[in-house]
Design a protein that fits this description.
By secondary structure, this protein is an alpha/beta fold. Helices cover 35% and strands 16% of the residues. It is built from 14 helices and 17 strands. It has helices at 35-48, 74-84, 97-104, 128-135, 154-158, 169-183, 202-211, 221-228, 240-254, 297-308, 329-340, 350-358, 373-380, 385-388; strands at 15-19, 26-27, 30-31, 53-57, 89-90, 111-113, 140-143, 165-167, 189-193, 214-217, 259-261, 265-269, 278-282, 291-295, 312-316, 344-347, 367-368. Helix 8 (221-228) packs across helix 9. The relative contact order is 0.14.
Length: 400
């Protein structure tokens, strides 16, 4: 998975188009979580310090192929400027004469942010005309947005076909962090999967049943597995199709070297609410009308013990409704166990990342992936267009 990066080419003085992912949450015109901006800083600084004119491209939200005042990148430009401690100019278009004029006025080291790429309907179509317009602004293309590498858009793949292209430092980090899981994981290799739907993670489950030594299941998806084993799950959230998928996974696990572990106890509630009445019960004793909203203390301890013995751990998906304090203990137990695990620890998935950030444990992990859906597709073995479009560096060995 080694790709040519900004360190492998002469960037000095060049105009560099950089695809970043600044798809961040906003409230009242301010960025409320700047994690995606922060991970792009090393690449931006690397280029700026070498006299490049850095031209940043990103999407934000899901505009309907037209400008949306609520999704303009002005708040992002303000926060980026604060983090870099330099002025950031932001233009109100993605391409056109105004953008070309702004680029022409840039000095070495300047950083320019273009408007939300998805305001232009040609972006998602990978329109050749838009690609040519953007390519005319730069000498080099850098993709530093792994999280949208599964999209074949103008700013993620089109530019790599016209301009000399390399990976950014965050893209490199994602490929090494996630690629190492698939190429040569340290043993025992433990995978923790949670979240809501089993059907969203069919490919991931199947991949890890072949690759991992232990697969620990939590979150709402665990109830599909429990129901597939014949347990009564009360009012717990279960998708019918998920039960079918879980049954097949359990069959595969029986003949796999991977040991699949399910919860033995759960925290149940009489309603989906912070102030609901709660109990800890065995998984075969969930009361009728009650719903499981977190793994129980016995399961938390067992999962933490498995993580403590791991040579490598990958975690995707919370163990319960961690946004509510009453149902956050299982997710916290997994995060804390990973924070002290002597092996390599990798966290992927929006909710898992949010959990470790909320708990202040992100810096205790070896790699926190910002990839979201792209991470799961990568792990499943899909060829991500934005990655495929970048030139390989065959002689470079990924660092672990």
């Amino acid at each position: 998975m080694a790709k040519k990066t900004v360190r492998d080419v002469d960037v000095a003085g060049k105009r560099v188009l950089v695809r970043v992912d600044f798809n961040v949450p906003l409230r009242d015109g301010r960025v409320t979580d700047d994690a995606r901006i922060r991970v792009a800083l090393p690449t931006i600084r690397y280029l700026s310090e070498r006299g490049c004119r850095v031209i940043l491209m990103s999407h934000l939200g899901r505009p309907k192929d037209a400008p949306d005042v609520a999704l303009r990148l002005d708040p992002v430009a303000m926060r980026l400027g604060q983090l870099l401690a330099i002025p950031i100019r932001k233009v109100s278009e993605l391409s056109g004469p105004g953008v070309a004029a702004a680029v022409a006025l840039m000095r070495p080291g300047d950083v320019l942010l273009l408007e939300n790429s998805r305001f232009d309907p040609r972006e998602k179509k990978n329109d050749p005309a838009l690609v040519r317009e953007l390519a005319g602004l730069g000498d080099l293309y850098v993709n530093d947005a792994f999280s949208v590498a599964h999209r074949a858009h103008a700013t993620t793949t089109g530019l790599a076909k016209i301009l000399p292209a390399v990976a950014g430092l965050q893209m490199e980090k994602e490929l090494e962090g996630l690629g190492g899981l698939l190429a040569a994981p340290r043993r025992p290799f433990v995978v923790v999967l949670g979240g809501v739907k089993v059907t969203d993670k069919i490919g991931v489950i199947e991949r890890f049943l072949d690759l991992a030594d232990r697969l620990l299941i939590g979150g709402a998806m665990s109830f599909a597995f429990l129901k597939a084993r014949g347990a009564a799950v009360g009012a717990s959230k279960v998708e019918d199709e998920g039960v079918v998928v879980a049954r097949e996974a359990l069959k595969k696990a029986e003949v796999s070297h991977c040991r699949l572990l399910l919860p033995t106890d759960v925290v149940v509630a009489d309603s989906f609410a912070e102030d609901a009445a709660t109990r800890v019960v065995a998984v075969d004793a969930i009361p009728e009308g009650w719903m499981g909203l977190d793994i129980g203390p016995e399961t938390s301890a067992a999962y933490a013990a498995a993580i403590s013995e791991a040579g490598e751990v990958f975690w995707n998906g919370p163990m319960g409704v961690f946004e509510m304090a009453a149902f956050a203990a299982g997710t916290q137990a997994v995060a804390e166990a990973m924070a002290v695990c002597p092996g390599v620890t990798v966290v992927g998935g929006g909710d898992s990342v949010a959990a470790v950030n909320k708990l202040g444990l992100a810096d205790k992990m070896d790699h926190v992936s910002m990839g979201g859906g792209a991470s799961l597709e990568f792990i499943e073995g899909a060829a991500l267009p934005g990655v495929v479009a970048l030139p390989d560096l065959p002689d470079k060995e990924p660092s672990r």
